[in-house]
């Protein structure tokens, strides 16, 4: 494995265990996300990928183990805590409100209020500013979309997921986690979303990408975290390992 | 690729497509259509006197439909609109007839209506019961309780304050009651809440995709509670307006309030599936219901037939909504 200058670790998990009754979903997993990287998390169905992500984002409480953000141990009570700490999550099922326009979706739950009395007393939204910011963010991410005040339902599946990903990018201060963001998308749309993920990394954020799609993973990931039976089987680089190597580690046919 | 990078120019769609594409264009055409039919079949329909009567007849349903719109936008439905409003008229009427201060009596009645809304909201959001069942239950409970309190019968309420909303003022040959003005004011205020505030944005988001709303951190349960609470408050105000129209508290009144308010909302283009539509449509929808009832009455048609026509109308509107959803 690469032994260059030790990079900054943004998010780390140490020996995390999560059991559901007799089922051990996570069996002492370790995890390490470096600043500015795209880390792919791969593994068979039931290997514990989603459970790991939920533990990292406060969506569930680990049975034991430690999670550190920028080297500091953290105990998220829920996903909101993680969000306040600068971690944004994109879910597989399109988490958008289809009837609302693009700008409203981007700012959903974090709407901007108008300045002055209009905002503080009359609680008026600053729709203009939200539209402008949305446009700026989409341009910055180089994500192509029709007019920002179109309802999200008028977009293609890839563009919709793009809105969810852009929302995460817009508000994440440290990292973005995506659980199979392209699972429901076609080839071309997947390409759009992968481009978007690259732009997010290029803005300096770290990205965790869970995916089943090996070609996608090898196309985009800086490192690949391989889950097997609730543990980390290996972390490999797409430069030194082939898809077959990774699949072999995933299934237990080989070790790193 | 057919899409282009977002630019400010995209924002200005042509005026024509904006007007034709506006969600309330359809309902407005229906309203104009009905007005034309009634005007052609009876010249008295368009008399200013009759038009101001239509507005007055629309007041109570129009205001109830505001609360109904809020609930339906969250993908719920409120079958207790009429019952909660009757609760307000009976309580206020009883207290005033017992000699209590009219302002306090009405205030207390409105507070009770708000509490009934809060109870519905609590059951819907806290216990996650279907709004349809919760409000049906409240309808049954209130109807029975109110008949018991008033010993089954209606009673007159003679108090200038309770009747105040029925007082008239002239606006250029047009006779308006204060109730009509209050109705328009309520539409304006709630329209502002729905369209210009975060609160309204979240109402739409919850109705449109509850899970997405939860995931972005909107406190869904608390928000639903606030929606039902506001709806209850509005039904209480409607009770005051109802006493202004007819100075009579009747436990058997407002039998068709559910049908009429839901019809107004749905004809107005708000989707029963939640998250789509709005108050401008509902105002037009309420006027359609008012025009329909008035026009049919002028034509000498029995009120039962009016219910029948309204029933057909609501089914057509829901069918159209369903069809447009399938297309998407
Ligand atoms: N809420 C739960 N209750 C019981 N078992 C669960 C629960 N969530 C996950 N599991 C189990 O934990 C294991 C890991 O699941 P998961 O993290 O979803 O895997 P992956 O996302 O890699 O497919 C599986 O065996 C799954 O059945
Ligand atoms: Mg999974």
Automatic annotation (TrEMBL), chain A:
InterPro entries tied to this protein: AAA+_ATPase, ABC_carbohydrate_import_ATPase, ABC_transporter-like_ATP-bd, P-loop_NTPase
Annotated ranges, domain ABC transporter: 11-254
GO MF term set: ATP binding
Alphabetical UniProt keywords: ATP-binding, Nucleotide-binding, Plasmid
Pfam families reported for this sequence: ABC_tran
Transcription regulation as UniProt keyword: no
UniProt-listed PANTHER family: CARBOHYDRATE TRANSPORT ATP-BINDING PROTEIN MG119-RELATED (PTHR43790), SUGAR ABC TRANSPORTER ATP-BINDING PROTEIN (PTHR43790:SF8)
Name of this chain's protein: ATP-binding cassette domain-containing protein
Native source species: Shinella sedimenti
Upper lineage: Bacteria, Pseudomonadati, Pseudomonadota, Alphaproteobacteria, Hyphomicrobiales
């Amino acid at each position: 494995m690469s032994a260059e200058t030790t990079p900054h670790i943004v998010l780390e998990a140490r020996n995390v265990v999560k059991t559901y009754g007799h089922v051990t979903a996570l069996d002492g997993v370790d995890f390490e996300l470096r600043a500015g990287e795209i880390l792919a998390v791969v593994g068979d169905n039931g290997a514990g990928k989603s459970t790991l992500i939920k533990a990292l984002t406060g969506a569930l409480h680990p049975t034991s183990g430690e999670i550190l953000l920028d080297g500091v141990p953290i105990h998220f009570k829920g996903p909101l805590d993680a969000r306040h700490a600068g971690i944004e999550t994109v879910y597989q099922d399109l988490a958008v409100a289809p009837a609302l326009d693009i700008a409203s979706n981007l700012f959903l739950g974090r709407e901007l209020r108008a300045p002055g009395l209009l905002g503080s007393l009359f609680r008026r939204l600053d729709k203009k500013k939200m539209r402008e910011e949305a446009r700026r963010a989409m341009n910055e991410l180089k994500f192509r979309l029709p007019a920002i005040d179109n309802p999200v339902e008028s977009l293609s599946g890839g563009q919709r997921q793009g809105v969810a990903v852009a929302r995460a990018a817009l508000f994440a201060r440290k990292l973005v986690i995506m659980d199979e963001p392209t699972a429901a998308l076609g080839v071309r749309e997947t390409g759009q979303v992968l481009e978007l993920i690259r732009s997010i990394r290029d803005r300096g954020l770290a990205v965790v990408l869970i995916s089943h799609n090996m070609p996608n993973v090898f196309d985009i990931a800086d490192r690949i975290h391989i889950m097997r039976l609730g543990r980390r089987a290996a972390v490999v680089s797409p430069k030194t390992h082939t898809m077959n190597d990774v699949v072999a580690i995933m299934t237990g046919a080989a070790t790193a | 690729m057919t899409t282009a990078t977002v630019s400010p120019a995209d924002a200005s769609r042509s005026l024509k497509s904006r007007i034709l594409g506006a969600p309330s264009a359809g309902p407005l055409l229906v309203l104009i259509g009905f007005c034309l039919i009634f005007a052609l079949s009876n010249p008295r329909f368009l008399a200013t006197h009759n038009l101001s009567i239509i507005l007055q007849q629309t007041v109570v349903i129009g205001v109830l439909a505001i609360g109904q719109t809020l609930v339906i936008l969250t993908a719920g439905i409120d079958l207790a609109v009429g019952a909660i409003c009757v609760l307000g008229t009976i309580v206020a009427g009883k207290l005033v007839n017992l000699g209590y201060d009219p302002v306090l009596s009405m205030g207390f009645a409105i507070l009770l209506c708000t509490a009934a809304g809060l109870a519905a909201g609590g059951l819907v959001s806290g216990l996650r019961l279907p709004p349809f069942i919760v409000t049906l239950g409240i309808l049954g409970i209130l109807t029975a309780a109110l008949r018991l309190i008033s010993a089954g019968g209606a009673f007159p309420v003679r108090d200038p304050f309770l009747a105040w909303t029925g007082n008239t003022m002239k606006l250029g040959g047009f006779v308006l009651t204060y109730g009509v003005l209050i109705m328009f004011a309520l539409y304006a205020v709630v329209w502002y809440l729905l369209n210009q505030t975060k609160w309204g944005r979240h109402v739409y988001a919850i109705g449109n995709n509850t899970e997405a709303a939860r995931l972005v951190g909107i406190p869904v349960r608390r928000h639903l509670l606030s929606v039902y609470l506001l709806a209850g408050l509005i039904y209480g105000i409607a009770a005051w307006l109802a006493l202004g129209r007819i100075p009579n508290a009747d436990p058997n009144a407002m039998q068709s309030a559910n049908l009429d308010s839901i019809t107004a909302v749905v004809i107005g283009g708000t989707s029963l599936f939640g998250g789509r539509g709005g108050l401008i449509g509902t105002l037009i929808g309420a006027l359609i219901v008012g025009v329909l009832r008035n026009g049919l009455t002028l034509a000498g048609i029995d009120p039962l037939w009016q219910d029948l026509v309204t029933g057909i109308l609501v089914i057509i509107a829901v069918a159209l909504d369903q069809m447009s959803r399938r297309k998407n």
